Amino acid sequence: MSRAQSLAGASAGCVPGSAPQRLHRIGAAATVALYEELALAPKPGLVSFIDNGSHRDMDARTFMRSLFALRHYFGQIAELGWRGAPFEALQACGIAAEARMLAATGGINTHRGAVFTLGLLCASAGALLREGAAPRPAALRAAMQQHWGAALLARSGQATGLPGGIAAQRHGLRSASHEAAAGFPTLFGAVVPALAGGLQRGLAPEQARLDALFHAMAELDDTNLVHRGGMAGLRHAQQAARGFLAAGGAARPGGLEAAWALHRDFVARRLSPGGAADTLAAACLVLRICGPV
Q: Within 13 A of 266's CA, how many CA atoms are on the CB side?
């Protein structure tokens, strides 16, 4: 991705145009990032345009209906960040977006995690826009923690009743709420550097995204995997991802075939690293907001 394609601008760190236009572009970048994640294949156990992965209740068309339903949400929550809205307002916006998603998909959860994670990043980008700060990954993270860190920490201690939250509580894992309260350490510490580094080394965008996905799988306490396959499923996925990266990743000879083999293995085990998929989409968004890092 070139700097001209990103939301990073020349002097003020923002694209030319009015604040509403810039906020709209933040929201559009989130939608594109989610499409980039969906379009990537192979993705072990995950839905793509090639197949349904480990899922019987959804396919790529389900995800596209969800994206259409969410198309205005990311710009709206970016504007809330620009206005300095409290976390309760962000949460209400996210709950309304999730309801639109479920209505569009017939009750199927396609993007609940992305509504939360990418929504927070869009709000943080909006806050940086208001402050006139250059949108860099560290600045995005700092803005999120400065404006909503206390609320996110309080939220991380609350029981959600959702499968991921139940799995995290039962096994002592970091849920999505815990990741957010800590400033998304897996995203900013591992996945964004992996994606940016792959692109800087000259990998094709699809290869860089695939390696970034495996970095997310290797590091994340993905409660989607625990919900489907228990702790054994999580550990199997983490070890498989680390082995894939240690062998040279997507760009090595036979790397794509190895990724397809892992896809078939995950489908046979009914494993689906949905948290890692959300983290990949979030990394794609960060680079679209910030440009090369």
A: 33
